[in-house]
Amino acid sequence: MTLFPTVAAFEAALEALPAADEAARGAASLRQTQLTKPPGSLGRLEDLAVFMAGWQGRERPRFERARAAIFAGNHGVAVHGVSAFPVSVTAQMVDNFRRGGAAINALADAVGLELFIADIDLETPTADFTTGPAMDEAACLAALNIGADVVVPGLDLLVVGEMGIGNSTSAAALCLRSYGGTAAGWVGPGTGVDVAGIARKIAVVEAGIGRHDDFLRTPFETLRRVGGREIVAIAGAVVAARLAGVPVVLDGFISSAAIAPIAAAYPGITEHCIAGHCSAEPGHERLLAALKLEPLLRLGMRLGEGSGAAVAVGVIRSAVAAHDGMATFAEAGVSVA
Ligand SMILES: O=C(O)c1ccc[n+]([C@@H]2O[C@H](COP(=O)([O-])O)[C@@H](O)[C@H]2O)c1
Ligand SMILES: Cc1cc2nc[nH]c2cc1C
């Protein structure tokens, strides 16, 4: 099924984002007060359980089927020497994901996440956005729908992650356009570029935003002109998950930047999202503040590929398990008086 057959369909979805189920949230909050613990003593686990209840629309959220969708794309701006690694690594890492040898394979296994890998036209990198739009409208719509398609019926939680050499430059451009500031404020080492590499990244971000400035008027246009296919797919997956009532765990700087153009125009897009962690990429802290998301974890990770979000899923799983498995005061015969 094509959830977003046209740009207008995508924009209509953004105008009508569904809200959480307040009755389910209320029932879950009440249950939290009845469980055998002092009120509030499970801290953020309590909020997570209520959050999951609200988006799933059930007092006792399920954790039977959780999926990590990892999108991969290649970037034309990589020709400017903005990454510490060659573009060929993107496809090689996708092979590694498929063979089970990457960090995300081990981390997804550890928390019971099924893994879905979508590599998008790796042999045809997006165009260099310093000279023209990264994608045409058809390619951008196709990527949105590749993302939307990962939201299959029956999912209880979706993790979004990415792999794409050069994509931290694209992410910085999306952040600059969405939230202002300076290119230097959003650019960081990514895979580990040196000071000269950071200067090249800043120049590329400035050139890209300068080149497209007048045309970056909608989330779609911003994603199309300075985004990348894996980034657009994440945006499509996050919006599709919202329409399906599936809570989302965002990974690092690039995954979070994928929704920045949408969030700048429609701040409510983050309501069904959890920031799994705050990565070591310096722009991520600033971006999460702009998105008004408090990260679950701060582990100094900067890998991408959904890895930090996968670790955070362990915490969310624990929150749901406590909410579902604990006895109430009445059941346990524990007297509060
Ligand atoms: O998730 C993050 O915050 C993160 C921070 C730095 C790098 N990465 C990963 O590294 C790649 C982007 O870095 P770069 O230097 O190639 O732009 C891409 O494959 C990301 O998954 C990811
Ligand atoms: C090896 C490698 C693995 C990655 N996983 C996500 N981004 C990555 C970038 C590199 C370079």
From TrEMBL:
<dbReference type="InterPro" id="IPR003200">
    <property type="entry name" value="Nict_dMeBzImd_PRibTrfase"/>
</dbReference>
<dbReference type="Pfam" id="PF02277">
    <property type="entry name" value="DBI_PRT"/>
</dbReference>
<feature type="active site" description="Proton acceptor">
    <location>
        <position position="305"/>
    </location>
</feature>
<dbReference type="InterPro" id="IPR023195">
    <property type="entry name" value="Nict_dMeBzImd_PRibTrfase_N"/>
</dbReference>
<comment type="pathway">
    <text>Nucleoside biosynthesis; alpha-ribazole biosynthesis; alpha-ribazole from 5,6-dimethylbenzimidazole: step 1/2.</text>
</comment>
<dbReference type="InterPro" id="IPR036087">
    <property type="entry name" value="Nict_dMeBzImd_PRibTrfase_sf"/>
</dbReference>
<dbReference type="InterPro" id="IPR017846">
    <property type="entry name" value="Nict_dMeBzImd_PRibTrfase_bact"/>
</dbReference>
<keyword id="KW-0169">Cobalamin biosynthesis</keyword>
<keyword id="KW-0808">Transferase</keyword>
<protein>
    <recommendedName>
        <fullName>Nicotinate-nucleotide--dimethylbenzimidazole phosphoribosyltransferase</fullName>
        <ecNumber>2.4.2.21</ecNumber>
    </recommendedName>
</protein>
<keyword id="KW-0328">Glycosyltransferase</keyword>
<comment type="function">
    <text>Catalyzes the synthesis of alpha-ribazole-5'-phosphate from nicotinate mononucleotide (NAMN) and 5,6-dimethylbenzimidazole (DMB).</text>
</comment>
<comment type="similarity">
    <text>Belongs to the CobT family.</text>
</comment>
<dbReference type="GO" id="GO:0008939">
    <property type="term" value="F:nicotinate-nucleotide-dimethylbenzimidazole phosphoribosyltransferase activity"/>
</dbReference>
<dbReference type="GO" id="GO:0009236">
    <property type="term" value="P:cobalamin biosynthetic process"/>
</dbReference>
